[in-house]
Design a protein that fits this description.
A 4-stranded mixed sheet has the order 1-4-3-2, with helices on one face. A 4-stranded mixed sheet has the order 5-8-7-6. The protein has helices at residues 21-32, 85-97; strands spanning 14-18, 35-40, 47-52, 55-62, 78-81, 108-109, 117-122, 128-133. The chain has 2 domains: 1-63, 2,3-Dihydroxybiphenyl 1,2-Dioxygenase, domain 1 (Roll), CATH 3.10.180.10; 77-153, 2,3-Dihydroxybiphenyl 1,2-Dioxygenase, domain 1 (Roll), CATH 3.10.180. Strand 6 and strand 7 form a beta hairpin. The protein is α/β, with parallel strands linked by helices. InterPro entries: Fosfomycin_Res_Enzymes (IPR051332), Glyas_Bleomycin-R_OHBP_Dase (IPR029068), Glyas_Fos-R_dOase_dom (IPR004360), Glyoxalase_1_CS (IPR018146), VOC_core (IPR037523).
Length: 153
Amino acid sequence: MPTAITPRPATGHVGLNVTDLERSIEFYRRALGFEPISVSTDGEHRYAFLGSEGVLRLTLWQQSDGAFSANTPGLHHLSFEVDSVDQVRAVEAVLKEHDVRFAYDGVVAHGEGAASGGIFFTDPDGIRLEVYAPGGAEHAPAPSGSAPTCGFF
């Protein structure tokens, strides 16, 4: 068996291709609270670095003219963790103000009887997103039964 890599790397930021940089910056800022750290809208190289409390979490690159595809290899969905189901519901309320398309109605458990759960929705380019809490969803429905909810939206 191969030896594990040491140190084990942690996920840094995630980069997403978007079709309209300004629209995506506004979505991630207003709907999820990310702050612009650096933005370039000049010429062909349009991008934004977004974060929270000065820490880079998400980069947006305007270099796509298509739509998100669940049918090709690549990103399945991007997930954001919060501390509680109440915080998930607070994010949901803000998203509803922005007419976001949800995969399920309300908070759902990750699987039947699972403590973790969240909301599942798409950004303006159709990129699948999740906001979840590690506990507190024990009594929420699991639309996919025992299958992991986040894998089937």
